[in-house]
Structure formats: structure tokens, C-alpha cells
Amino acid sequence: MIIVAGWVDVRPDERSRFLSERREKILETRARPGCITYTLSADAIEPGRVRFFECWEDQTSMDARQQRKAPTPADWVKAIAREVVSYDATVAVPAT
Q: Whole-angstrom Cα distance, residue 50 to residue 94?
């Protein structure tokens, strides 16, 4: 399993628009083969931060998603900063 987690910062007054612009892409990504989950959400503390979390069955599935990315429309809200980390989680253990 591949886990991708991170955040994107946008201007606080543009965060809602940033999220709504990506709704269709979120739905498309969730429907891709190998996608376990894909989500974007507003951070509860940082006013311009959007957190994201993805889980993929394997690296091949995630790589296929990245190869099919459509260009982002020029008029969409742009990120100011971002941080992304990818993890190879070979063993999943239920939390207790």
C-alpha cells in the first residue's frame, strides 16, 4: 500500500474556492483502479491550509494516476506552498 499525505497553502480567502474547484478531480481519482481513498480537507487551525491524504493499493496504481493527470486550468486558485510525503506501507495493522 502506498500512502501519500501532505498539505497545500493558498490564500485564506481562496481556500473554499480551491476545494470546490477540485471536487470533480477528487471524484475521478477515487474511481481509478487501485485507489483506496483520496481526500482533501480544510485544516481546522491554519486558515489557508488544505490537507490531503491518499491510499493506493500499490505503486503501479499510483504511478498510473500520476501519468493521467490533466493540466490544471489557468484560472484555478494557485498554491503558495506545499509539502508532500509518500510512504510505502507494506504492513497494515488495525489501530487499537
A: 26
